[in-house]
Here is the input.
Amino acid sequence: MALIFWLRVDGAASEKSVEEMLEVARKQFYVAIEDEKRIEPTIALFKRIGQIEPKYTGRTQVYIGSLIALRGKHAFLPHTKLKWVQRGLALMDSGLQKRPNDIEALFIHGTTCYYLPFFFRRGDDAQRDFNEIIKLMPRHMDTYDPKLIRNVVAFLLEHAKLTDDEKVYLQTLKDRLQP
Here is the structure.
C-alpha cells in the first residue's frame, strides 16, 4: 500500500494511504452538505484522490459532481442555482459512466438525484441507481467499507421503492452487518 504525503486542510503535513484519504474525503463530503465553506476543500481532496489512484476516478468524479450541484443549494439567484446543479449533474453522470458498477458511486449519484427537487426529473435515475445497487450487493459488497454498506442498506430500506423480496434481503443484510 503506497503512502501519500499530503497537506491536510489545516495545513499540517500527513502521510496517508489512498484508502485513508478516501475515508477522510467521505467524512468531509457529509460535512460539506451542511457547511458551504467545506465544499471547495472537499472537491480538492477528491480531485487529488482521483489523480493518485485512477481506479477511483469515476467515483471521485461523482462526489465532485454532487458537491458542485450542492453549490446550487447555497446560491442566491435561481439561475445560478440551476447552473450549478446542471453542471454537477453532468459531471456526476459522466463519473457514473466510467464506473457503472461502483456501489459507492451509484449511492452518491442516487441519493443526490433523490434529494433534488422534482422539476429536475431525476427521481427515476435515483430509483434506477438503487435497483442497480441491490443487484450488485451480493457479488461486490465485501469489497467496500462495511460502514458504507450499512449506510447504503439503511438508506435503501427507508427511501427506495422496494419489492417485498428486496425488503427481506436488505433487512437480513442489515441485521447481519450490525457491528
